[in-house]
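Q: A reviewer asked whether we had any structural model of the full assembly, not just the individual parts. We don't, so I'm hoping you can provide one. Inputs are below.
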Amino acid sequence: MPKDQNGDQTVVGVDVGGTFTDVFFLNETDGSCDVAKVPSTREDQSVGIREGIAQQRDDLSEVSLIIHGTTVGTNALLERKGAKTGIITTKGFKDVIEMRRRDRPETWGLWGMFEPVVPRDLRVEVDERVLADGTLHTEVNLDDVKQAAQTLLERGAQSVCIFFMNSYANASNEQAAIEVVKDIWPNEHITSSSEILPEIREFERCSTATLNAYLQPPIGDYLERLEGGLRDGGFGGEVLIVQSNGGVMSVDTARSFPVRTALSGPAAGVIAGAHIGDSAGFPNLITCDMGGTSFDVSLVADGESALAAQTAVDFGMVVRTPMIEITTIGAGGGSIAWVDRGGLLQIGPESAGSDPGPVCYGLGNDRPTVTDANVALGRINAAKPIGGKLDHLDVEAAKAAIKAHVADPLKIDVMAAAEAIIRVANAKMAGAIRLVSVERGHDPEKFVAMPFGGGGALHAGALIKDVGLSKALVPRFPGVTSALGCVIADMRFDRVHTLNAMLDDLDLKMLAAEIIETAEDGERRLAEADVAFEGTEHVFELDMLYLGQTHTVAARLPLELDGVKVGIDREIVKSAFEETYRKSFGRLLDGIGMRVLNLRVTVIGRRPKFDLSILGPSGDVSLEDAKADTREVWIDGKWWDAIVYHRLDIPEGSIVPGPALLEQPDTTIFIDPDLEGLVDRFGNLVISRKA
Amino acid sequence: MAQLDPVMLAVLKGRLEQIADEMDATLFRSAFNPIIAEAHDASHGLYHAETGETLIQGKSGLPVFVGAMSFAVKAVIDKVKAESIEQHPGDVFIFNDPYEGGTHLSDFKLVRPFFRGDKIFCYLASVGHWHDVGGNVPGNYNPVATECYQEGMLIPPVHLYKKGELNEDIVAILQSNSRLSGSLYGDLNGQVSALELGEQRLGDLLEEYGEDQVTAALVELKKSAAKLMASYISDLPDGTYAAEDWLDNDGIIDEPLKVGLDLIISGDRMTLDFSRTSKACAGPVNISKSTCIASCYVALKHIFRDVPANAGVLEPIDFVIPEDSLLSVMRPKPVGGYTETILRVIDVMFQVISQIAPDMANGCAYGTINALSMAGYRKNGARWVMFSFFGGGHGGHPNGDGLNHGNAPISTATIPPLEILEAAYPVRFTQWALRPDSGGPGRNRGGCGAVYEIELLEEKADAFLFGERGKYAPAGVVGGQPGALNKFTYPDENGEDAEPPMVSKMVGIHLDRGQRVRLETPGGGGYGDPLERDPKAVAEDVRLGYVTPEAAATFYKCAISENGVLDSAATDRMRGEN
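A: Here is a predicted structure for the entire assembly that you could use as a starting point for your response.
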């Protein structure tokens, strides 16, 4: 594709994955787009980003906006490579982060271990105490705080978290402590728990705030390098960072709240999935991202992705901020197939990953994986491996491994064993899809599967049959879905505050004032960013429950912000709760009091979406021209001749009957004999049962 | 019967497990009491139509129910047979009789026959721990009970539903026997919903795959589980191995109670012989035979992690449990403190396995549930009851030190956030911290227990504690040392610090505003000889405050200063003397 020479303004989406950095370019002037894919630079992701952009744009001054989904935060957490962090906390409670909620990593087996990111000598207690109702029991001793901060500095802490008991109910002690620490702390890496998460639950608040402090230095440095490098290259626009909730934030906000990037990367893919599905007429979908070791699914209903309140990045590393709900199971292309001592065929959880990878890579692994089974069955083209790292795949080695580890123990032949591996892997993946759909009360017939990433499209057909989904929708460029998602993500601010009152006693005046203040704060942040919005939206929710319960439901309040009025009353709250509760559990519990635990306010700045039809096929070839080859594929116990197509050449409106294989640089799509694929005007492939 | 290919078997296994998992999730989400909602003290599964054997059980329920629930279903089957009760679709039995169905009175079991045509295909069952079922003390952990009648209401298997018709009278009886009738009603509804969902999902599955295939899969899964367990057993060297452990007392008479185990391996079979165990006792630490078998299953599953949750696992295992034993108690002996005894059964299993296969073993975990209750009336006359279980350390193991502040091996329960406790009850925690020197010394140290100190903010309250391990500490294995003892301190009538005469069991503790109780829980047992621990690792433990310099000198023979600096020369001298 030609480089842009016209001085047009371009918006760039960048997704940095473990292997590749994907870049999506949208020329806002003429509506055209480009993609680029370069190897990720693990040591400093910003190098790969600049290289990726340079592939399509010489002059960074043509780029007006860069939106970035990053795994820097995730990796720093998983690899424990955050900063040396200290905690200043209430006397008696320095072990909260280490004691967790008294859990263990695995239900079965008692060999669990846990090392908190802040060791015990970097947690210092001070005299202070607030009670649960907000009463100031003991005013904070600021000399203690000063001494504590100095001790932490002497011990080498680069960042600090201040976490006091019950600070969600009254933050005055914590705020006073912050002011004192600011005076002596040599940098801006200071986090207060009541600012990050003014919500009841001490461990979750402490963990989230501490991990935020832990990430402040590395994320701050990274963003500085990224921005600096871009500015040196002539970039004069704005950089936005994708948050775990699928919205974007400014670089300044990301520097203060880096913990909000914990699941930045995968979130962008789901956002793109929602937009692609909505454009193609499928607002209900389940995104399926099949990687080397895991299979991630996420549900989008009516164009909205499901949000989870918290996640554990690893055992005991809890991050409680709203995030796109992604369910992960250990079934990827590298998952190892084996027969247990009882004679049952199992897939995973052990994985060969990408190094040494499947047997067919020839890099030293000799235990068969899901990818090996796909290779043996002819579904993956052994002569043209994806990714360009290898020049061919070793089919015979894959078969030999399947024979030794699966076929022989089960006393079946190799091809039957390869097919068995795929079917059991499909069943596992189908289980994950069922978990987020059927188990949540959604009717699978109303949903389509959207595979993205490298491997999912081989399995999509089987998955829709197994779960009873209506169709599978394979986006035009599955490999750059996340980068595309960056370009269209909205700007978003979430705020939670614990109220903890019976509905009858709730101070509505104060609640209304808080709603208005929080919404205004969000709008102020939107205005500060140099970004165009199509509109602004507010979501007001109360986490509510019946007295005596511990799990809440989020009741959305039908409120319109009208200047200084919100028009909230008890009846609105009550009916919002009852409607939500009935939807979740099918019944109401009469005569039991209702409690309001938290207020949640979300402010969304809607960013313009672009017309995805620009991605569609150009239309100057016929389906016949797109045919590349035929290949033997093993399906249901016999060899079939499947036609192989160049996927990107297939014109709009074509129907591709199964069995067929559609190849493109970043993925291979398999259409079962009883399925067919339709290419829509966006270039998506819609797989459904044959008419 | 249909011939089943290995693929279909693996597929159906996943589908069936998902049904039970989904039943678990339904109850956790809708339950009222935190013991189910947060601590997941509940379980669901599919059980054999004639034997009641576990066919499939959910993965997220309380581990101990995995073995116990089949006995509950069997109790219903026996009753139906003995009394020639006609069964219909839509029937649901309810009961909590611990002698028939295992565990204790707090656990209410709902059992529902699943019909295909006019035949029962299998049973669906749900069990959940209700917040209060009457009895002498709120929450039902009565440490001085001598009969089950002091522990709560006892309901035999009766129809809650007949042909889908709810018997409101039963609900009225249950509710009027609980201090927390609203919570009871909510939990009961949640369990009914879970069974309805199971009925629906299993029906769909049978439509999709056919009865023959599903039946064949259930038969095969049991066979495969039995084969798997037998194969693990045959890896162990033949012989007889013995271990014993102790309960402090039964809460009534201050005499230790022994749990003695002789484990015999012979080829691919294992015998668990509990003949050397104390006789049934006066107080509430007895357990029924079904509970004892269930606890052995829990221990085996901790050791052989990939054995599935079905009856096949127990097929290669023979049990010897004498009729008059602490471990096979009959009505009306009290069973309210059953958790303590099953933890001890699990502890002897770990200890005996450490002799057979040291590389598969771990030190014992803290080994007591520590049910602590504080209750009273608020200024406005409203009753409040705070009831919670507390944590401790896990044992050291071949891969490393034990986990600090973990949950009990019989459960996956998490502890409620202390901020939630403080918001709900008139108390203030003054300490919530790890307990130094509580982890058993070893090459790999036991994890630390905790210190919890709680102050009363209302005018008056009564407290009680049901705990153990106050006299007999959690054992180390393979040369590891035991963890610290459980310790409870409360103010006596003069306001002086006192410890309970029965060590970890006490009722009727009176508290005035501003007074505190303090619970210090055991750590886990160590793994391997402490003198094999790298002195640098000991020094790091001292620097971080997990171990004191005194303990480092006594148990590890290491000379380490208060701030964690190792004196290598002095350490060499100390270690050289041994």
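A: Points you may want to mention in the reply: The CA atoms of residues 59 and 371 of chain A lie 41 Å apart. Residues 491-606 of chain A form a domain with the Dna Ligase; domain 1 fold (CATH 3.30.1490).
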